[in-house]
């Protein structure tokens, strides 16, 4: 479902190049809820942007849902993201003047889909996410957790095989965060898709099937979380980083 091979990415800062990724290898071949975990500056956000076809690697290959996305043109990448990748951001990125259902159906409306079908699909998704009674509420009338659920419904609209989540609970309280992590795990299982979440929190990573530890621009380890709680994940993560 997702494979990175020897992925490198550098950025120009003044007169010098700064290496963000230094040969990332990563494979996900089964549906599930996965985490990419690392400290600030480790390269995890850069990797997520590459996986979302928002940028291209300097070297290496990235295959997602059977497509070499590192070879796509900008226009091809836009079309691919629209139907094959769902993206959930930390800041929700909802349009404040639109209702929950209007935000959830927006990708289909912008794609020229039948409005009635788009509305029915958005209604179904929001109901599944526990927002069946909040369809006509605008973002400022929703809690942070509810806003993030609307963003998830929007990401799921085209039933993509991959959802990428960038610190999705960074603006939520602990109870809302816990609820959202459980929800993402349920969605991955129900829909047989892969949800890949970037995080620095062991509590978040403990809800995932596997955790890819990234440090210094490389994937250093893969932690299988079965039988591990938050403290167990944290301990394994520290061992992985210390071993580099």
Structure report:
The chain has 244 residues and is α/β, with parallel strands linked by helices. A six-stranded mixed sheet has the order 6-7-8-3-9-10, sandwiched between helices. Strands 2-1-4-5 form a four-stranded antiparallel sheet, with helices on one face. Helix 3 crosses helix 4, helix 3 packs parallel to helix 5 and helix 5 runs parallel beside helix 6. The mean pLDDT is 93.
Question: What proportion of the residues form beta strands (DSSP E)?
Answer: 25-35%
Q: What oligomeric state best describes the polypeptide chains here?
A: single chain
Q: Would you count the extended β strands for me?
A: 10
Helix-strand pattern: EEEHEEHEHHHEHEHEEH
Identify the strand order in the major beta sheet: 6-7-8-3-9-10
Sheet with most strands: 6 strands, mixed
Termini separation: 28 Å
Structural shape: globular
Q: How many H/I helices?
A: 8
- Measured as a percent range, the helix fraction is 25-40%
Global Rg: 18 Å
Low-confidence stretches: none
Average per-residue pLDDT, rounded, comes to 93
Give the class from helix and strand content and strand pairing: alpha/beta
Question: Which descriptors would you attach to this protein?
Answer:
244 residues, alpha/beta, six-stranded mixed sheet, four-stranded antiparallel sheet, 10 strands
């Amino acid at each position: 479902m997702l494979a990175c091979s020897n992925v490198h990415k550098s950025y120009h800062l003044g007169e010098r190049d700064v290496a963000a990724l230094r040969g990332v290898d990563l494979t996900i071949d089964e549906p599930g809820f996965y985490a990419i975990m690392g400290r600030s500056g480790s390269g995890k956000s850069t990797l997520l942007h590459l996986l979302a076809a928002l940028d291209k690697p300097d070297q290496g290959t990235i295959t997602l849902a059977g497509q070499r996305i590192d070879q796509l043109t900008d226009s091809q990448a836009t079309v691919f993201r629209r139907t094959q990748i769902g993206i959930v951001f930390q800041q929700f990125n909802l349009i404040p003047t639109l209702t929950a259902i209007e935000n959830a159906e927006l990708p289909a409306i912008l794609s020229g889909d039948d409005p009635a079908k788009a509305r029915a699909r958005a209604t179904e998704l929001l109901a599944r996410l526990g927002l069946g009674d909040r369809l006509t509420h605008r973002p400022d009338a929703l809690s942070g957790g509810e806003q993030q659920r609307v963003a998830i419904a929007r990401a799921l609209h085209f039933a993509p095989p991959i959802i990428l989540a960038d610190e999705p609970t960074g603006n939520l309280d602990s109870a809302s965060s816990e609820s959202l992590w459980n929800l993402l795990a349920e969605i991955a299982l129900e829909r047989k898709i892969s949800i890949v979440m970037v995080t620095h929190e062991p509590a978040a990573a403990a809800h995932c099937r596997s955790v890819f530890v990234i440090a210094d621009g490389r994937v250093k380890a893969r932690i299988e979380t079965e039988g591990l709680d938050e403290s167990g994940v944290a301990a394994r993560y520290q061992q992985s980083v210390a071993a580099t």
